[in-house]
Structure formats: C-alpha cells, structure tokens
Amino acid sequence: MIFAIIHWLCRLFLTGVFLYSGTIKIQQPLQFAVALSGYQLIPENLILPIATYFPWVEILLGIAILIGWKIRYFAAGATALLLFFSLLLTITYFRGIEASCGCFSFDDPISPITILRDGIIVIPAIYLLLENRIRMRLKQ
Amino acid sequence: MLSKLKWTTFPILFMLLLSMPAYPTEPMNPIGKILGGSLESPVRIEVFSNFECTVCREYYLRTIKRILEEYSSVDKVCVIYHDFPFQYHKYDREAARYVEAASRISREAMLQVFDALYTDQANWSENGELQKTLKKVLSKEDFEKIMELSKDPEMKPMIDAQYDLAIKSGLNATPTSFIFSPGKKQRVEGLLTYLVLKTFIDKIVK
Fold this sequence. Notes:
Order of helices and strands of chain A: HHHHHH
Helix content of chain B: 40-55%
Distance between the termini of chain B: 49 Å
CATH class of chain B: Alpha Beta
Largest interface: A-B, 27 and 25 residues
Order of helices and strands of chain B: HEEHEHHHHHHEEH
Number of domains of chain A: 1
Strand order of the largest sheet of chain B: 1-3-2-4-5
Number of helices of chain B: 9
Radius of gyration of chain B: 20 Å
CATH architecture of chain B: 3-Layer(aba) Sandwich
Number of domains of chain B: 1
Strand content of chain B: 5-15%
Largest sheet of chain A: none
Number of helices of chain A: 6
Largest sheet of chain B: 5 strands, mixed
Oligomer: heterodimer
CATH superfamily of chain B: Glutaredoxin
Shape of chain B: globular
CATH topology of chain B: Glutaredoxin
Helix content of chain A: over 70%
Strand content of chain A: under 5%
Structural class of chain A: mainly alpha
Radius of gyration of chain A: 16 Å
Distance between the termini of chain A: 17 Å
Structural class of chain B: alpha+beta
C-alpha cells in the first residue's frame, strides 16, 4: 500500500512539474530563448529551435508519466533531463554567469537554491526508475 | 479504472493547456517612435528602452539596428521605441527629449540621434555632455533645430506618456520588447540576440 502511494505521489509530482514548466515555455518561446542564451553554452543557431520544441518534450514526459505507459523508460528520460539541467545550472553558476534559470519562471536567477531545487525534483524520477529494485531490497 | 484514465487524460490535459492564460492579443497603443517599417508590417516589435541602460545599448546596436536594415527597410518588421526612464538615470530624460525633437525633423535625423546616443553612451552617461555627442554627428542646422525643439514644454508630457504606458503595461525592466506576430503577442525581457530574432522573423515573413 505504502509503495503504491509513493508511486502515485512521484508520478503526480513529476507530471505537475513537467506540465507547468512546459506550458510556461510554450507560451513564451522567445523569453525562453533569452534564458537559454544567458547560459552561454548553446550554439546560437540552436537556441530558437530548442526554445520552440523542448517544452513539447516536457509536456510529453508529463503526460506519459501520468498515463504510466512504459513508465520506466519515461522515468529514465525524466531523470536524464533533470540531471542534465542540474549540471547545466551548476556549470553556469560556477562560471559566474548571471543568467535566469528559465525553469519555472523567467525572473529566477541561477543560485544554489535553484540548483538544489532541481536536485530535489530528480529524486521522484530516480525513484520511479529504480522502483522495482528499491522494493525488492526493502522486502529482503 | 487505469485503462479509462489513459484515454480520458489526453482530452482533459489538452483542454487544460488551451485554457492556460495567454497574453492579450489586442495591439498596444503605438505612441512612441517608429524607427522603421510601418504599422502594416507582419511583425511589430515594440521596445521599452532606456538610453542609459547598457543592455539596451547592446540590444539596439547589435540586434535592432540589423533588424532595421534587413527587415524594416522592406517593410517586414515595424520597430517602435518607447522611452522608459528610471529615476536613478540622470540623463535619460534629456536624451529622450532630443530624440523626440529629432523625430519632428525627420526619421533619418531621429535615427542619427539614436545611433549617436547609444554608441557614445559610456561618455555622456558619465559626464552628461549629450550635446557634445550629438554635435559630432549632426549637421549644424539639425543640431540647432533639435536644441530649439527640445525646449518645447510639450516634450515632458510626451515622455511622461511613454513612461505611463510602461507602468500600465506592468514593466519593471529594460529592455522589454513586445513582439506582435499574426495572432500572437509575446513579452520578452532582456537581450534578444540578432540570430534568435532573425530566425523567429524568418519563420513568419519568408
């Protein structure tokens, strides 16, 4: 029972995060492009295509995790994406660049708090990915 | 239960997506200065900028100027500038007065003033010698006309109206751009690079 509750809490949390984050970016692709430019890591000619299509990937992940189809694969995708963004934020922060995170709003400068927040968000994704192993370990 | 959820989730989420708040699509009152293009251009960029803000300088010189040359000259993009003076910028209102005065002579004179103010920003924002900056680029006749026109008492309410529009639009930073394309309005705070803006415009006009 407790595993089922944790499982659903993780799914609902990740769905909320990805749908919220994706929807904001879909409405403002140019503002998201400004945020991506601020990282000074992405080639300029790729910025607008990423800003336009990446939010749809987030929406797709959110819906897939909610539906639960091939959930381990999508959990793996979510984990990879969130770890990638945590890494991107950490690199940008330690390079001393004052950029907006662009994660859940566009007036959110990169700071240890935004890095920590992204680190926390990845936990439910990792749980869903490793759920079977965790259950087996705990049952043993 | 789960199989029902699978098929009902899609339309519910789709409806949720559609119902998310979007920016109003009605056009903003185009008070301000038209730097290039016409109001009938398929893309309209309204910039709230400040002559003393360094990011605004970058934005104008590296992005907007190139958009003016490439797209506004063929009436594909209309660029409108509004001044948004901050209290801690000592000389911005004076700069805005000269722009307003130059706009009464011709668009070319206004663009010359724009170019000069942004190019020489580092100097005049330190020493306040705006007139020296303008003298370098304007003809004697235009310079004198601009100085005379800038004394017009109607200048202040015109600059105030642009400031009020910025406040009414909920702005708190410069540069902020409103980008109007058919059926869509986007608000963008910060520096949009030329290549990003060009890619966006090309999708609409080419």
